[in-house]
Design brief:
The chain is of the alpha+beta class and 464 residues long. Helix content is 48%, strand content 15%. The chain contains 20 helices and eleven strands. β2 and β3 form a beta hairpin. The longest helix has 24 residues. The structure holds 2-oxoadipic acid and nickel (II) ion. 2-oxoadipic acid (OOG) binds next to β1, β4 and α18.
């Protein structure tokens, strides 16, 4: 019997992410323009900063940067979420983190499907921010029932995709022909549909309840609503967007500009108003429109420890008490100034961030450390002081709820701010998902610990 060779899940993810990018480029041409601009700015940043280039080369993450992107989808039912988890698992993507966005006026809770191992992340860090609509937060019961009935009728996965997901689960992988077919079938779920599932009247009612509800319930599938390339200089891309005919949102979300980037900074361009056909009760198609899909860019910085994250949240909060960014951009400069000032207590050198236990680092042996004999009982600080061990920031691979809410809001329109009672419900989410989400802090701490253990082991090996 010949043994079937399975395509590594990392390769399936790479194929899928490339296919998704190609599809989105044709569906939303401004995305292609933004990709070109980001590639240009990244090249400029690297040639102006040889030290950054060198560290990225050494930590093996230079190649992935131009390939790097995340997307987002919004699902309607627990069954869709559970199957989506199984679909992403075929590509080596697991749910990391729980995000409650109800506090920010968006009736969803979310997770991010992404690869977790170091090798997998290096190969291709593609991730998808995945939200589940919370109809329980909708007050109008009749409308809620109608929305539920509409969602129950749709099937967002092709029969071929479901068959291949089951096959991958049973066999433990997919061979090349199946993997190629899987990518094609899975992509169908994320495609844009210009024919709605609902009548113009129902669309209007869903829209009046919340624009996001209309976006989820009215369509055949959870169209990918943005794909986000990673840039090395988000301020430069933001400033140049208008030259390329793209209007950015008013302010960059997240921390201010810093020498040592932390967490995640994001900005986006507004959702397009797209023509949609709605089928009326008499069977005729009526022209209408819907705003759903937009573009976004991000700059990633160091992953913060719980202590660092608490400081980040505190300072961001403080800045928002001073100035809240207006959607029209009228106070953008004032907001940026307040944000920068609010963040002065957050140290801005890697040494200080490490010393204060605010961020996660990956440790490796220096040139000297690779040749030296070392007292391996020495503390990590001593090994660093002796220039045997060096440290690089671990990149934050996740998302930020306040920023995500800002991105949602800028695309829902200014009239969309709505109050919901804060009601995080991770248990319910995990029940619907059919799995627990990975705790992001535990994960980063594990990477850091493993790198320290590796250093110690190599120093022992040198000594022996
Ligand atoms: C998701 C918005 C969140 C991000 O980068 O924070 C997000 C959505 O609009 O569906 O993608
Ligand atoms: Ni995004």
């Amino acid at each position: 019997m010949t043994k079937t060779r399975f395509v590594p899940s990392d390769d399936i993810r790479s194929m899928f992410s490339a296919a998704m990018s190609a599809m989105y480029r044709t569906e939303v041409p401004a995305y292609g323009t933004l990709m070109d601009l980001v590639a240009k700015v990244n090249a400029e940043t690297l040639s102006a900063d040889p030290k950054l280039r060198e560290r990225l080369e050494d930590t093996d993450s230079l190649d992935r940067i131009t390939e790097e992107r995340h997307g987002a989808i919004r699902l309607g039912t627990p069954a869709e979420l559970a199957m989506m988890r199984r679909l992403f698992a075929v590509m080596g993507m697991v749910p990391v983190g729980y995000y409650d966005l109800s506090t920010a006026g968006v009736p969803v809770h979310s997770t991010a499907f992404r690869p977790v191992g170091e090798a997998s992340l290096k190969k291709n860090p593609f991730r998808v921010f995945t939200s589940l609509l919370r109809l329980d937060l909708i007050a109008d019961e009749a409308l809620r029932a109608e929305a539920e009935a509409t969602l129950a009728r749709r099937q967002i996965f092709t029969p071929g995709a479901v068959e291949l997901i089951e096959k991958a689960e049973q066999q433990g992988g997919l061979d090349r022909a199946d993997a190629l077919r899987f990518v094609t079938e899975a992509l169908e779920t994320f495609r844009w549909h210009d024919k709605a599932l609902v009548s113009p009247d129902m669309y209007a009612r869903l829209h009046a309840a919340h624009r996001l509800i209309a976006d989820v319930v009215s369509f055949k599938g959870p169209h990918i609503n943005h794909l986000t390339p990673r840039t090395l200089d988000i301020d430069l891309v933001q400033a140049r967007m208008p030259d390329y005919g793209i209007a950015p949102k008013a302010v960059v979300e997240g921390p201010p500009t810093r020498k040592c980037p932390i967490l995640l900074r994001q900005t986006s361009f507004k959702a397009l108003n797209e023509p949609v056909l709605f089928e009326d009760k008499d069977g005729t198609w009526k022209e209408g429109s819907h705003t759903a899909r937009f573009g976004e860019i991000e700059q990633r910085g160091i992953a913060l420890t719980p202590k660092g994250r608490a400081l980040y949240d505190e300072l961001l909060n403080a800045s928002r008490h001073l100035v809240r960014p207006a959607a029209d951009g009228s106070n953008a400069a004032e907001y940026e100034k307040a944000l920068a000032e609010a963040f002065t207590p957050f140290p801005d050198t890697w040494e200080a961030i490490r010393a204060e236990g605010l961020g996660y680092f990956a440790y490796s042996l220096t040139e000297k450390g690779r040749k030296a004999k070392a007292d391996t009982d020495a503390s990590l600080d001593a090994l660093i002081a002796e220039d045997l061990v060096q440290f690089d920031p671990i990149v934050y691979e996740d998302f930020l709820p306040v920023s995500a809410a800002g991105i949602f809001q800028s695309n829902l329109g200014d009239d969309a701010t709505q109050e919901f009672v804060a009601s995080p419900n991770q248990q319910r989410f995990e029940l619907d998902l059919g799995a627990k989400v990975l705790n992001e802090f535990d994960h980063y701490a594990g990477i850091e610990q493993a790198s320290i253990a590796d250093c110690r082991q190599m120093l022992t090996a040198i000594e022996a």
